[in-house]
Structures are given as structure tokens and as C-alpha cells.
Amino acid sequence: MSTVSLEAALLLAGVLFMLGLVGVLIRRNIIFMLISVEIMLNAAGLAFIVAGTRWVQPDGQVMFIFILTMAAAEVSVGLALILQIYHQLKTLNSDAANIMKG
Amino acid sequence: MENLLWVIPALPFLGAILLVLFGSRLPRSGVAALGVGSVGVAALSTVLLGLQFLAERPAFYHQEVWQWFNVAGFRPSVAFHLDALSMVFIFVITFVGFLIHVYSTAYMAEETDFSRFFACMNLFVGSMLLLVMADNLLLLYMGWEGVGLCSYLLIGFWYKEPANGYAARKAFTITRVGDTAMAIGLFLLFQLFGTLNIQAILTDAPQVWQVGAGGALLVALLLLGGAVGKSGQLPLQTWLPDAMAGPTPVSALIHAATMVTAGVYLIARMYVIFELAPVAQLTVAVVGAVTLLVAGFSALTQYDLKRVLAYSTISQIGYMFLALGVGAWSAGIFHFMIHAFFKALLFLCAGAIILALHHQQDMRQMGGLRKSMPVVFWTFLIGAASLAALPIITAGFYSKDQILWYTLAGPSGSVWLYAAGLAGAFLTSIYTFRMVFMTFYGAPKTPVAHPPGKAITVPLVILAVLSLAGGFIELPHNFGHVALFSDLLAPVLPGIRAAQALEANEWLFQVLAAVVSLGGVLVAYLYYQQSPALLQRLERSNFAMRLHRFWFSGWGFDALYNTLFVRPYVYLAHLNKGDVIDSFYTGVARLAEGFHVMLSQTQSGVLRNYVMGVVVGAIMILTISLLL
User: Fold this and answer.
1) Nearest neighbour of B606 by CB, restricted to A26, A30, A95
2) Which of A14, B89, B172, B397 has the CA that lies 20 to 30 A from B181?
3) How far is CA A3 from CA A9, A53, B205, B418, in A?
4) Where would you find the membrane-spanning parts of this chain (chain A) (predicted)?
């Protein structure tokens, strides 16, 4: 099994996380924002896996399974919200949802 | 009987409490019975106690009722100490107070706040009894403040008139200046002696201080400050003439039996400290001498009957201070007692006149009352004669002559003090008989509406008898050996001996005093009865009118205090109308409000801004945690 250096793996995770973050920040379409959040979650999961491998501990993988589960739940709620927003506002622009401010 | 000492102050307090609780539901006769009865029974117990005291002649009676509190070794108790000095005081307070209460039932009969009046009067008498019977200075101070409170309540009795409320506040504030000095004096005494028990302090003081020690001087001056405030002496005398805003029986009570005599009592009670500080004692004498002249000149110019009497009280208390200041302790107390009789009499007569003339107090509107109110005329004349110290027949002569004699012949007497006293006696008899001639002689100017009834005339007659006969218990040495009063006080207050060189000539000075007081009557007769043209010529002179205005305004003390204290205070209060301190708290509230507005702006509802906020926050936390 070819070994990947820890730094390279963490760098990949960091880059992925930043890409996801930038996506959340600059995208206006709410579906794209959701996808970007998923990318960030995966980046975090990758970091856990890498750390778990480095210390030869199962905890990293356990955490990844948690994150997967959480992401699934989050996506289902998020999609339901998106459907409702589209239903109400007839648009997917997240800025239009500012009518919800308290 | 001596185990029932507590009954004497407790009765008026009980009367006051009952009147406060149930007074509004009782009929007028019930209120009067309760208010007069409580003081009456106290007077009766005082007489019984006094008889026992005279029979047994103990040094003192003492009764501890309970311990007030016990904090860090400071254990003041509610305990009563009765010796000859307090005996004289409680006799005057309860007996004269009782007569004034009887009189009040008639005087105040038309008032709506009948029960409030009697509740305050009872409280007044009770506080004063507490003051003179207390065995420690803390309890004394409680009574001291009690009389201050009651004077405020009673001077402002007709509170719907703003001027009366102002007079009440003035009395309260000015006496508070003296009270503060006295409180500091008590703190000092406690720090030095570790106790406030009067007898313990009087015993220890000569061991702690040499004669002329700085500590004794300081304490004596602070106590003098308190006495000066309550007794209306220079420079705190300005409240007393304005205190005439209250009902006349209140003035009689304040002037004769209670509040203004508290200062005399305090100095006499703490005489050891004053003897250890000769400078302070000299100050007492000088304050008395100056006050009696200042007030005498002011009394000469007033037109309001009650204000003449008020200034006359200030002047007579000045005599008592003079006596205390030269060490003639028993002479001062003797004058206090006689003064209580004739001043209560004069005030009650003045009240009868004022009531008969529909609350007319201006002497220029009176006149000719001699025929229409004979009882009041004769009793007033007796009181006036006693105040003016007409020789031989009046009690005032014996008490005042004693003071004058010792200011000259006593060990610390001086010609200057004697001259001031003599000039004061001359002024006294002029303004007294000016009052008599203006009120009772000449043409009637206001018709008499209500002739006085029995409840008014009986106290007048009793007080008139006392004002004449009260003096015979203490005669000058060359009149035979009758010195009942100073013998009574001898165990409590040290005696005084006149200088040998002058003793043989005592009669000369008595004749001088008699001539001076008769001369005053003559002057008043000339100016106000015989030839009014003299008075008119005086009124045409510019200088005389200026002087008249100056004296009329009480030597400008009110104006001086207004400029020195009241105006700057009002100015500062006006400047600080917005309250500087408050603006700090307002600032805090404004800041919180500003942050609130800023933060509520950030809640835009734009999702990406929120995310941005989270990111910025995370970066900040990471940066900080990396840096630290």
C-alpha cells in the first residue's frame, strides 16, 4: 500500500474545506450553497480519517461515520427547506430569504 | 416612688401613642381628656416624687429600665437619673406643660386637627422629659432630637400656609447645625471615656483633663454648639422669631418649658467639662451677653406681639447663658424656672388677646384692652413686671438680680459682662412696657370678639401667682437668709461666692438694677403713653428709621445667611439640576442602547453574511489561540 504523507492529505482536506467555504460565501443559489456545505463536511471527514490513520486509532473512522449520518440528516432537512423556500418565494436566491429576519 | 421614675416620661408618650392611634375616632372631649390627662398625671407624680425627694434629700434617684443595646462593649441603657437639677426641670416641664395643655383645650377648640395637636404636644413633653431625665448622653440625645422633631411638627401645624412650612423647615435645619456639633462632641466623649454615662464622664473628666486642656475645650465648644442651636442663641438664633408661625400654646411650650431650655440644661448638666475649659465657659458668658443685647434691641422694634415675646425669650436665655458662663450655675437655673412661669404666662395672655381679636397679632391694631379683658390685663401686667424685673414684688427681680450680681462680683465676673446685663435689663423693661402700653392702653382699635373662658383664665391666674411668689424662695444675701433654691441644687451644682471687696456694697448694685428697670418703664411710659410726639420726632429722623429697620430685621442675620448659605446652595442645586452623577448612569444606558442598535443591524436575514460572521469569528479565535 502506497503511503500518502500526512501533510499532503491534510493539505487536500484544507483545500477542499476552503473551496467549500468559498462556495458557501460566494454562491447565491441555495442548492449550490448546500452542495458546498457537503464539500466542507467531506473535507472535515477526510481530516478525521487522516488523523485516525496517523495515530492508528479507530476514532477517526467513528467520527467520519457520525459525520456521514449527520450529513444525511442535514441534507434531508436542507432539501425540505429548499423546497419550501422555492414554494414560497419562487426563487432559489438565498438573499431573497431575508424576509425571515427577526 | 423612686421605682416609678419611668412613669413620668412614659405617660406623655403613652398619651401621644393613643392619640395617634385612636385620636381621630374619639370625640373632642375624649381627646382633650387624654391629652391633658397624661401630662396632668405626670405632673401629679412629679409633685409626689418631689415631696419625697425634699423629705429624703438623697443625692439622686436612679432607675434602670432596660439595656438598650450591647455592641462591642458599648452598653447604653434606658435609665433615668433624677437629682435636684432634673427635678427642677421636670417640675417646670410637667407643671407648666400641664397648664399650657389645659389652656390649649380652649385655644384650639375650633381646630379640625384637634387630636393631631395634642398628640404632638404630648410627644413634645415626653421627649423633653426623656432629655432631662436620661442618665446617659445617648438617651439624652434621643430626647434632644425628639424635641427637634416636635418643634418641626408643631411650628408647621397650620401646614396649608406655605410660610408656616417654611418656618418649620427653617427651625429644623438651623437647629440641626447645632445638633451636628453636639453629635461630634458625643463621639469625642465616647472615644475618650469609653462610655456616655453622664455621671461616669463627670467623675472621670477631672482625672483625664487638666484645667484648660485642649480636649476639654473642644468638647465643651461642641456641646456649646448644640446648646446654642436649641436655645436660639447667637449665631443660630434666627429660627426662633419665625417659629411664631405655630399656634400660641406651642410657642408657650417651646419657650417656657421645653425646647429652648434644653441648651441651658445641657450646659448645666455637663458643668464639669465647662469648668475644665475656662475659655469655653467664657465663650458661654460672652455668647449670652451679646445675644441678650442683640435680641433686646430687636424686641424693641417689633410690632407683632408674639415676635416681641420671641426676641424676649432669646434675650432671657442669654441671661441664663451669662449666669452659666460666670459659674453662677444655680442662678442660671433659678432664672430658667422663673422665666418659665412668666414667659408661659405672657404667651398664654398673648394667645388670649390674639384669639379675642380674631387672630390679630399686630400691636398697632390693638389698644384699650385694659377695660374689655381685665383678667388678661392684670395677669399680663404681672408677667410683664416679672419680665422687666420690677424690684421687690416680682420673682423676675430676684432671679435677674442674682445673675447681675454674680456677673460683677463672681470670681470670673467682669465689668463688661455686668454692663451688658444691665443694658439688657434696661432694654427688657422698655420693650416689655412698650408692649403693655401699646396693647392695653390708648383707644380701642379692634373690637373684642371672644372673651376668654375659664380654661384660659385659670392657668393665667396660677402662672401669675407663681410669677410673683416664685422669687421668694431665693432671696439676696442682704435680704435675710433664704436660699432654698440654691440649697436644693447645692449637691449637684457647685456654689459661687461673691468677691469679699464688693459684698458690703451689694445693696448699691441692687438699687442700680432697680433704678434701671424702673427707668425702662418710665421711658416706655414717656414714649408710648405720655407724649406720642416724642415717638413721631424719632420717626422723622433718618438715622433712627434706618436703625429701626436694621433691628426689625433681626440685625440682618437672615439676609446674611441667605447670602452666605442659602443662595449659593440654591445656585449650586440649580447648576446641578441635571445631576452630574446621574449622567454617568444615563451614559451607560445610552451605550447599551447604541450596541443594541448596531447588533440588531447585523441581523439582516442574508444567509451569506451570517456565514461570513461565523468564518471571521473562527479566524479570530484561531488567531488569538495561536498567538497566545
Assistant:
1) A95
2) B89
3) 10, 11, 102, 123
4) 6-26, 33-56, 62-83
Query: What residue ranges do the domains of chain A occupy?
Result: 8-90
Compute the C-alpha angle B526/B528/B531, nearest 5°: 55
Question: Which of B342, B437, B463, B451 has the alpha carbon at shortest distance from B398?
Answer: B342
Cα–Cα distances (Å) from B38 to A35, B94, B98, B153, in that order, read 96, 10, 9, 20
Cβ distance A101 to B607 less than 8 Å, yes or no, reads: no
**What does pTM read for this prediction?**
0.79
Q: Give the residue from chain B lying closest to A102, CA to CA.
A: B603
- The pLDDT of residue B109 is 81
Do the chains contact at A97 and B604, CB–CB below 8 Å? no
Contact at CB, B608 and A95, closer than 8 angstroms: yes
Q: What is the pLDDT of residues B220-235, one digit of tens each?
A: 899 999 888 888 788 8
Contact A95 B607 (CB under 8 A): yes
pLDDT in tens, B334-363: 888 888 888 889 988 888 888 888 777 887
Burial of B241 (0-12, 13-18, 19+ CB in 10 A): buried
Band (pLDDT 50/70/90 cuts) for residue B592 is very high
Answer whether residue B2 shows pLDDT above 70. no
ipTM of the complex: 0.84
**Residue B612: which residues within 8 A CB-CB, separation 6 or more?**
A25
Three-state SS for B190?
helix
Give A26→chain B minimum CA distance, Å: 8
Chain A residues within 8 A of B606 when measuring between CB atoms: 94-95, 98
Q: Where are the beta strands (DSSP E) in B216-356?
A: none
Nearest C-alpha in A relative to B611: A25
- H helices of B447-505, where? 454-469, 484-489, 500-503
Residue length of chain A: 102
CA distance B625 to chain A (A): 19
Question: A8-90 has which CATH code?
Answer: 1.10.287.3510
| Among the partner residues B603, B604, B608, nearest to A25 by beta-carbon distance | B608
Residue type, B68: W
Query: 10 Å Cβ neighbour count for B62?
Result: 15
Which residue does chain B place closest to A22, by CA atoms? B612
Q: Does A21 touch chain B (CB under 8 A)?
A: yes
The reported pLDDT for the residue numbered B624 is 95
| pLDDT computed for residue B618 by the predictor | 93
Q: Which pLDDT band holds residue A102 (cuts at 50, 70, 90)?
A: low
- Nearest by CB to residue B603, choosing from A24, A94, A101, is A101
Q: Give the C-alpha separation, B423 to B430, whole Å.
A: 11
* Amino acid of residue B510: Q
DSSP state of B4: G
Residue B627 to chain A, least CA–CA distance (Å):
21
Q: Chain A interface, mutation test: which of B602, B608, B619, B622, most A Cβ atoms within 10 Å?
A: B608
